[in-house]
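S1.2 Input.
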Amino acid sequence: MNKLKPEKQKQIIAALIEGNSIRATSRMTDTAKGTVLKLLADVGKVCKEYQDKILRNLACKRIQCDEIWSFCYAKEKNVPEDKQGEFGFGDVYTWTAICADSKLVPSWYVGKRDYRSAKLFIDDLAGRLAHRVQLTTDGHKAYLQAVEDAFGKDIDYAQLIKIYGNEFETEKRYSPAQCTGSIKERIQGKPDMKHVSTSYVERQNLTMRMSMRRFTRLTNAFSKKVENLGHAVALHFTYYNFCRIHQTLKCSPAMAAGVTDTLWEIEDILELLK
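S1.3 Output.
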């Protein structure tokens, strides 16, 4: 990407992290679509590599995990027969973890909503923590074995299981059923039941949908290639963790977690390319 001037690179990244699509970013910055995608891929790779290296030995105390749905190429029901069952075609889930105190996102994984993805995600999360933590997930069964394999007995783990009604709604196709209640269930260790919650990670899901056009429902801006989805997610979390001031904390999540003592700018993300 050395043919692009730094100011143009900054314009492209700024447009992408504010939720613009590839085509919209191309029009806004007067840049070819392929050039935008190439910069996204280059920046996404170095963002993933940097965070994989730096987000280690974290002193988190309470972690919340969840999965957010999106799709690549086509919705599951429209995937051609010859591509059915192949990862990257149809439903794709992004698994995320968030520290309830610093709001840092230490780990994420783009995959399916199955045990294999759960295991890879939880194993990665466990390798980044400095000590025993309290973990809260939803009631997805894949977490049970994945958490046991990764942490053993060295975890205070609980699930927040939500109960949904079956009332018919006009917007049922695009809206989840109404939540009528929830159950807190202790799984392992001695979790403080007052802190058994998935509110922060569910709010992070909204941030993702607002900040990445690929996650916005009812548009044609969905990912055509799962690799580009991964690059977009890596860029998003670099900006979220290091550049964005959290409204409550008044600093970036990375600063709150002690990972860095300075607030990053977009130029600092682009420096990772060098």
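S1.4 Remarks. The first helix runs from residue 6 to 17.
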